[in-house]
Amino acid sequence: MSRSFAVPIDTNTKTLFGFWVYLMTDCVLFASLFATYAVLHNNTFGGPAGKELFSLPFVLVETLILLASSFICGLAVLAAHRQDRKMVLVWFALTFALGVAFLGMELSEFHKLAAEGNSWHRSGFLSAFFTLVGTHGLHIATGLLWMGIMMVQTMRRGLTAPVVRRLTLLSMFWHFLDIIWIFIFTIVYLMGAIPV
Amino acid sequence: MRQYVIGFLLSIYLTVTAYLMVTHHLFGGWALVAAIVSLALIQLVVQLVFFLHLGRESKPRWNLLIFLFMLMVVIIVVFGTLWIMANLSYHHHHSMSPGDTTNFIIKDEGYKK
């Protein structure tokens, strides 16, 4: 495959690596939240368990939305590397829209739970659920904020070397969040539905 | 570009498969858990390779190395947590009386009675 780059990739190696190390520490953070969830997931304190609370079709839609946004983000970075400013903005706008859709769905799920009395106060299980899934949601929100800023930077400064580097970092962050979600989807929602 | 399309399609397939396995209850219990966890791990590798290009870098493969180190830390933290909490839970539910506990410690520590 032949591609041409506006700047040699090697210029960014250290920064990209440093960010990668940060993402690895974020994995350890999520691992500890997963471990906590594993310990507490049966502590429902007489309240509802996952099975009663989660809607699998709803979560499937959420999952596919986030997956699509991760894919589109990849296309955005490809556009950035070939200096295609217009497509960078188009793809990132689409990524952003899908991200907002995901977050909106998640917030509606949280709101419904809380309104029915099933907030994080209710039980150890719900504490762990809201902490794990909420932390992921906070990461998504931060990513969306960063994405907005980067779209403005792209519009105002064009695809300069630093802008392309930041877009690459952002895409790494966004792919990472989708990977974490694979495990939330599997361990929290799918396993919650299995009678074990 | 092809990388991303392949990764995307594989991920959709793996996600929907896991979902359908659970909703249609094709088989049950721990076998089902093992199946969906395996699908998740495969999707992890798919996304790491096709979206994050892990392992594709030229040597030295620092990204891959740091990733493996993180995996080691995660395994220790998660497995260690589950072991310790299970042990705590067991001991809280199967406590001996204070007298028995004292005698156990004396014997276990090797104190002369």
Keywords:
heterodimer, A: 196 residues, mainly alpha, 6 helices, 80% helix, elongated, B: 113 residues, 78% helix
Helix content of chain A: over 70%
Give the proportion of residues in helices of chain B.
Answer: over 70%
SSE sequence of chain B, one letter per element: HHHH
Number of strands of chain B: 0
Give the low-pLDDT segments of chain B. Answer: none
Number of helices of chain A: 6
Note poorly predicted spans of chain A.
none
So what's the overall shape of chain B?
elongated
Q: Which structural class fits the helix and strand makeup of chain B?
A: mainly alpha
**What share of residues are in beta strands of chain B?**
under 5%
pLDDT averaged residue by residue of chain B: 91
Number of helices of chain B: 4
What fraction strand of chain A?
Answer: under 5%
Question: Describe the biggest sheet of chain A?
Answer: none
Biggest interface pair, counts: A-B, 42 and 43 residues
CA radius of gyration of chain A is 19 Å
The whole-angstrom Rg of chain B is 23 Å
Number of strands of chain A: 0
Topology:
The complex is a heterodimer of chains A (196) and B (113).
Chain A: H1 13-40, H2 50-53, H3 56-81, H4 85-115, H5 124-157, H6 161-193
Chain B: H1 2-23, H2 29-50, H3 62-93, H4 98-109
Describe this structure in words.
The complex is a heterodimer of chains A (196) and B (113). By secondary structure, chain A is mostly helical. Chain A has helices at residues 13-40, 50-53, 56-81, 85-115, 124-157, 161-193. Chain A starts with 12 loop residues before the first helix and ends with a helix. The mean pLDDT of chain A is 93. In chain B, helix 1 runs antiparallel to helix 2. Helices cover 78% and strands 0% of the residues of chain B. Chain B is elongated. Chain B is built from four helices and no strands. With 113 residues, chain B is mostly helical. Chain B has helices spanning 2-23, 29-50, 62-93, 98-109. The chains are: A mainly alpha (196), B mainly alpha (113). At the A-B interface, helix 1, helix 3 and helix 6 of A face helix 1, helix 2 and helix 3 of B.
